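Please review this one.

:::
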Amino acid sequence: MDIRHYFGSVQDLLNNVPFDAVDSVVETLMKANRDRKTIFICGNGGSAATATHFGCDLAKRTIVQGQPRFRVVALTDNISIMTAVANDISYDRIFAEQLMPLVNPGDVLIGISGSGNSRNVLEAIEAGRAGGATTIGFSGYDGGKLAPAVDISVHIPSFNMAMVEDVHLMLEHAICERLLAMQKDAAQSEAAPALNGHQKG
């Protein structure tokens, strides 16, 4: 595939991002932040890298002085637990087994799967639902089993895995940028009454 054609195809996908669903993701994550709930993220392969990257950006990129920090756990990051579960139980359980003792009602679980059919992501979604979490799925291809299994589905309709992963990564960046702006707006709103009160005094 010609490089220009590749970028043109990615641009077509970006022009058709399900922005209503993305807005719902932003609202859900901000609510979890305000309620002091935990956000869990998981995925395989390139989606594991996106999960780790998303976790990093949520934890670090959104910091604003005076505002609550996001509580986030990337379930992709503890290689010892993942390999122990894969070896002793099943690879399908590497995320669900980590999640079960940690998840609480009101938490959020984000599952990322290019095909939408990664068994370990699907089992994590089941565990998250059982624990009372709001579930979010980032998928590609035809959405697979993930898209209909979650509360909020962000589906990128492409059968090119690389392009799906490109858009998923861009979306996590865009989501974190929006959350950062919301954090700044909240800080300014809280500072304004205090400033006005000081001036009146």
Q: What stands out?
A: The beta strands are 38-43, 71-74, 108-113, 134-139, 152-155. The mean pLDDT is 96. The chain has one domain: 12-200.
